[in-house]
Amino acid sequence: MRPTPFIIGSLLAVISVASAAHDHDHDDHEHEHEHGHEHESLSAHEHGVGSLNLVVDGGEVAIELVSPANNLLGFEHLPASNADKAKVKALQAQLNDADSLFVFPAAADCSVEEVELSSPLFETEDGHEHEHEHSDESAESHADIQAHFHFNCTQEAALDQIQVALFSAFPGTERLLLQAIGPKGQQGGELTATQNLIRF
Fold this sequence. Notes:
Blueprint: H1 4-22, E1 49-57, E2 60-68, H2 69-73, H3 82-96, E3 102-103, E4 110-118, H4 129-133, H5 137-141, E5 144-153, E6 161-164, H6 166-169, E7 175-182, E8 185-191, E9 197-199
Parallel strand pairs: 1-7
Antiparallel strand pairs: 1-2, 2-5, 3-6, 4-5, 6-9, 7-8
């Protein structure tokens, strides 16, 4: 079994390929998602759409979710009211409960090893509100949330699929664009509430 750094390195390679494909025209088309473009490619920030990057290496599974905050929270501004702050805390708790977001075959005996969350919206609790309040407004109005999940499965032979339960947890998420590296190589596609199974 290879160590976690290899898995994360592979995941970052997948992410860089996806980013190169999708981020190149964000600056010129910042509000492209509001105008109903028919392009299949994901703009850098599109409400209802996120990306899921996944690497399976033996019994090790690394997953990265990148999503507009609006998909998960219903808003993207820095939380100022107590109600907004409570929603952000509840979201962090929900994302940390990774076993309820990704369902593995019971026979694979998988457990979550680590969860890392990153977003400007999460930093206000550390006293950084004013650093972000006066930063670039477009960055604030298009806040993203990144979540990294690391699982370990003791019975890797039984690890043949993962059900993504994010859609029921976060109804604002309509589609996830998938980039994955698994036992049979690289695969991509689109996940929805009715097609939420990743098979290896």
